[in-house]
């Protein structure tokens, strides 16, 4: 039910990925086509309007500094934060910056490389983290998208 209700958001996150890492986007499309071709997975995949093959929901959670570990280093994850809260901040210590993480903020980042964390904030906050699991792409045989050259890269 949640997946069906989230189709517009899933499509938007896929569209953002197509701009920041077109090759990863294309690899995600290939992977989803492979999943759709699998009769055991097709029923669920038909409702999944996203090139990311995983999404995690984190509710009202302070997230200690960490790197993500289930994707490939060159891949982008996309973080979307929603809710009614104040004082949201996304910290990237290696870059020496703290980003405003207000409701509705979308942040693409290489989560396997950049340590990131989110301190406590006041109110109700949900972060949706969209990412790709490398093991799924290995199963699908989609190869490696490599590093992003941006929307104009060939």
From TrEMBL:
**Keyword list, A-Z:** Dioxygenase, Iron, Metal-binding, Oxidoreductase
Look up the record and name the cofactor or cofactors this protein needs.
Answer: Fe(2+)
Q: Coiled-coil ranges per the record?
A: none
A Pfam short name? Tet_JBP
Q: Listed GO molecular functions? A: dioxygenase activity; metal ion binding
Instruction: Describe the location of the 2OGFeDO JBP1/TET oxygenase domain by residue ranges.
Output: 6-134
Its name, as the record gives it, is: 2OGFeDO JBP1/TET oxygenase domain-containing protein
């Amino acid at each position: 039910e949640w997946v069906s209700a989230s189709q517009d958001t899933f499509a938007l996150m896929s569209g953002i990925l197509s701009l920041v890492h077109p090759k990863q986007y294309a690899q995600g499309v290939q992977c989803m086509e492979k999943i759709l071709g699998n009769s055991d997975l097709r029923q669920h995949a038909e409702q999944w309007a996203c090139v990311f093959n995983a999404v995690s929901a984190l509710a009202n959670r302070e997230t200690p500094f960490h790197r993500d570990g289930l994707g490939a280093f060159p891949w982008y994850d996309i973080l979307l934060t929603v809710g009614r809260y104040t004082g949201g901040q996304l910290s990237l210590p290696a870059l020496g910056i703290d980003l405003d993480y207000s409701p509705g903020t979308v942040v693409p980042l290489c989560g396997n490389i950049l340590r990131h964390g989110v301190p406590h904030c006041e109110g109700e906050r949900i972060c949706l983290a969209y990412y790709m699991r490398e093991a799924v792409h290995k199963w699908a045989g989609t190869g490696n998208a490599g590093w992003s050259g941006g929307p104009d890269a060939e």
